[in-house]
Design a protein that fits this description.
Helix content is 1%, strand content 45%. The strands form seven sheets. Strands 3-26-25-24 form a four-stranded antiparallel sheet, with no helix packed on it. The longest helix is centred in the first third of the chain and has 4 residues.
């Protein structure tokens, strides 16, 4: 015991944002209760968002934003139009435009572009010619509805088979070989209804926005690399008390959190890389209304694409470039 007292105790680095609460149950041989994150943790955001620039688009809704390595941006509407633009002062200058119905965009480190269109497999866009070519990322009999490229250059595709009424998420290597397929949980229940948007954090976790049209709600599913589910986030008990959580877009931050927009409010939900809520932020505070699409630039600025207000006659949805601190 005397010798043990001389051994220095290693300091622990906690990753919790709040002390979990113990939830007791009827005591049995195998179960005395569980720990649960304290949902009453203070949500006074220790974060700051400051608008750097804002731009008017020609779209009623900016459905996707993807920064390219040549400092141009790909933006598209819910309609059949994709623009490659550059930011010039307070104007969006169009470099090229394509008449394509886009459901998902992923930009490669080589500045190549993968698009999910109404084709059975993702397409690659040639910036020079504007032509689409086939890729090896086939997920038949599923139909692609979303796409993402991880930092490890894995291609992640969300797919839907309407006939079978099933959805799945596929992780593939450069050659198009499927390495992991997420479709059923450990209880053999389907994980996804409609995997609409995908991102990933540097620890390899995949975050999927899943929408359930039948229920009018959604969730964020966090997947681990070996095929299991780490967590599911279904909304905040206060913010979503009167209206369901309807996540729309998701993006990983430089600090390895994720940010989520929804279809029915102006809050940004910030989760850690395991899918636990860190904080939330109302973009009304800085004059941004109806945030819809998200992306981070290589400089660490947050791009927010918006949709027009209900009943508005203007088609000029705005794009904001925002400096952030705290997440």
């Amino acid at each position: 015991m005397v010798r043990s007292l001389d051994i220095p105790i290693q300091q622990m680095q906690s990753s919790y944002i709040s002390s979990p609460k113990f939830i007791p149950v009827n005591v049995s041989q195998s179960n005395i209760g569980s720990f649960k994150d304290d949902e009453n943790v203070s949500m006074e955001p220790n974060i700051s968002l400051v608008i750097s620039n804002e731009y008017k688009s020609e779209f009623p809704t900016i459905a996707f934003i993807r920064p390219c390595i040549d400092n141009s941006y790909l933006i598209c509407s819910k309609e059949s139009k994709l623009l490659r633009v550059e930011l010039d002062g307070t104007k969006l200058n169009t470099i090229s435009q394509y008449q394509i119905r886009v459901y998902g965009i992923a930009v490669l480190s080589s500045n190549g572009v993968f698009l999910v269109t109404n084709e059975p497999s993702p397409k690659q866009l040639d910036h020079t010619t504007g032509k689409l070519s086939d890729t090896v990322y086939n997920i038949a009999p599923f139909f692609p509805i979303s796409i993402h490229i991880t930092s490890g250059k894995k291609v992640v595709v969300g797919g839907l088979n309407e006939k079978l009424e099933r959805s799945a998420v596929f992780v593939m290597n450069k050659q198009g070989k499927q390495e992991t397929v997420y479709q059923h949980d450990k209880h053999n229940q389907l994980i996804f209804a409609f995997p609409k948007s995908i991102t990933s954090t540097s620890n390899g976790n995949i975050h999927v926005v899943d929408c359930d049209p039948a229920r009018g709600s959604g969730k964020v599913v966090v997947l681990e690399q070996d095929g299991g589910i780490i967590n599911e986030y279904t909304g905040h008990p206060y913010l979503n008390e009167d209206q369901p959580f309807k996540p729309r877009d998701i993006v990983a931050t430089p600090k390895d959190n994720v940010v989520i927009t929804t279809q029915n409010d102006s809050y940004l939900y910030i989760l850690n890389n395991r899918g636990d809520l860190v904080t939330y932020y109302n973009t009304h505070n800085i004059g941004i209304f109806h945030p819809y699409a998200l992306a981070f630039t290589t400089a660490g600025q947050l791009c927010i694409g918006c949709r027009k207000s209900t009943g508005s006659t203007t088609r000029e949805a705005k794009l904001y470039v925002v400096n952030i601190t705290g997440f």
